[in-house]
From TrEMBL, chain A:
Belongs to the GTR/RAG GTP-binding protein family. GO terms for cellular component: endomembrane system; fungal-type vacuole membrane; Gtr1-Gtr2 GTPase complex; nucleus. GTPase involved in activation of the TORC1 signaling pathway, which promotes growth and represses autophagy in nutrient-rich conditions. One of its GO terms (biological process) is negative regulation of autophagy. Transmembrane segments: none annotated. The keyword Nucleotide-binding applies. This is GTP-binding protein. Component of the GSE complex. It comes from the Eukaryota. GO terms for molecular function: GTP binding; GTPase activity.
Automatic annotation (TrEMBL), chain B:
GO terms for biological process: cellular response to starvation; negative regulation of autophagy; positive regulation of TORC1 signaling. This is GTP-binding protein. Component of the GSE complex. GO terms for cellular component: fungal-type vacuole membrane; Gtr1-Gtr2 GTPase complex; nucleus. InterPro entries: Gtr1_RagA (IPR006762), P-loop_NTPase (IPR027417), RagA/B (IPR039397). SUPFAM superfamilies: P-loop containing nucleoside triphosphate hydrolases (SSF52540). It comes from Maudiozyma humilis (Sour dough yeast). Signal peptide: none annotated. GO terms for molecular function: GTP binding; GTPase activity. GTPase involved in activation of the TORC1 signaling pathway, which promotes growth and represses autophagy in nutrient-rich conditions. Belongs to the GTR/RAG GTP-binding protein family. Keywords: GTP-binding, Nucleotide-binding.
Amino acid sequence: MDNQEDDSKAMILLMGLRRCGKSSICKVVFHNMQPLDTLYLESTSNPSVEHFSTLIDLAVMELPGQLNYFEPSYDSERLFKNVGGLVYVIDSQDEYMNAITNLAMIIEYAHKVNPKINIEVLIHKVDGLSEDFKVDAQRDIMQRTGEELLELGLDGVQVSFYLTSIFDHSIYEAFSRIVQKLIPEISYLENMLDNLIQHSKIEKAFLFDINSKIYVSTDSNPVDIQVYEVCAEFVDVTIDLFNLYKAQSAGVTSSGADGKEVAKPQRELKSVSELGNGVMIYLKQMIRGLALVALIRPNGADVDSCLTIADYNVDTFKQGLTELWANAVIKRPEPVQEELE
Amino acid sequence: MSANNRKKLLLMGRSGSGKSSMRSIIFSNYSAFDTRRLGATIDVEHSHLRFLGNMTLNLWDCGGQDVFMENYFSKQKDHIFQMVQVLIHVFDVESQEVIKDIEIFVRSLKQLRKYSPDAKIFVLLHKMDLVQLDKRDELFSIMMNKLGEAATEYGFPDLVGFPTSIWDESLYRAWSQIVCSLIPNMAAYETNLIKFKQLIDAYEIVLFEKTTFLVICSSNGNVVTSGAGQASSSTGGNKGAIVVDPKRFEKISNIMKNFKQSCTKLKSDFTTLVLNESIYVCEVSPNMVCFIVLNDTTQSQQLVLENVSKATKYFQ
């Protein structure tokens, strides 16, 4: 049964040499750990799985660096067969030649077992590198990896590279893109968001996972990392302020009339902030721990009417999302049912 | 501007105790992480900060190396210790030379008694995050007893102390109270705030200074007079059985300041924030921001915002 459950989830493998920062990434992205606290993390000795549910159910399996996957006793074939994505972390502040050889070996194996696997490489800990050096390191790593793969006759394999650091938003950005590749409905979502922004003076819209600040989807306009950061921080602000006075609103509810009690907890989180230059940041809770965060630029139009239109359109979007999800849900448990019969 | 509105604040303490770090966080929008870049302060760094529009805080950040210290107590003593409204003495709780720290404190008290006997004294036991959680209270009371004795001896019986750390909200709490002690018409603000709270049927209203996001006053439970210095003993909103976080003001300061900081990435600053139509954050005067939590979430947003703008004239 355990096995079947795993099958219905999209699985991401997190690999890399020892001390390259895999556990830190997991803790920071999925457990909201402060980046500085990761200094005290112990070395991981056993594979550990993080379950994480956003629009899709996701499992991130972290494999310790010192493990040898090619030992016959280790069932690596089954491991690679079930995963949707392979994330390989390279420590950019260390000698990375060994890592690249290791990576090429893993890619060769993984690609043989599962040709559909997405291969993602995080060039990690770039916070310690200067701006010029970052670009150099990236070019160097990409080139060397390419050469290694060419030697193995795997030049057709697509490998994506990301520059990341846990001290800024780049790790969230990278994970957002990795997760998006595993969502089958991503193109519909993108279309829906495009539609939404065209009709409501929205400049940029993100569909955030509230817990991890990963964005599950965005519209097709290019992502400005600064806008993403502001939106992610706005999610934090909203949640933090809401939690401060959660006890208070709960207290009011219980003292209120019986009819109200049912209605109030269902109320979705919504917050709007207006900035000095007229830009508005708009947040509304969606289904399954997601929230839509949008940047509205009224450009001289009436602010209230802008908000009303946005409200209406976002509601429509939410309905669409609910329907999309309802249809997706029917498809997913099917394999499990078949096996039960 | 009358001299009355100028307040001289002395920021003293041994070298490396964290004076410049806390100043940068509160008044220059540094994040706690950014303070690593700060070097040692040479001699005295003056900063003039406008607070609440018409009040100027002259903050004298006195470099804490022994060479400078000797200078302050000898050659520059009349220059440094004259006309002081507030002395803020910072102690590093991890310090290896506690005796020396206290000696410096006592020497400044001596000078203060001579040059400005009306000054208020605050001590901050800083870097509390480095002390184990269960030992903090004990350490704090031991230190405060020692310092209290010393202060009383030199004619400053009303010593107020805070345990602080730049890594949590305790710093905001301490500085809010320090700055509040300088605001003359606090009582007027408070009565107006309570009236306003009743008018719009709010659960709580808190006033913040706009640039620093320090708490000025709040409608439930006065932050200023509860300044016994014990962070744990503070019970802000004692309204029936509802339990609210006693440290919420500082947390709001922290959250909003971070948000303000992130707004600069969009080349703008924030004006209003409405959360679930029950929490409103908006400007109530050019230099104050109010944080309103409503009881009744069915009020229309326009009505609330209109009410706030009408209230502006009571908070000048």
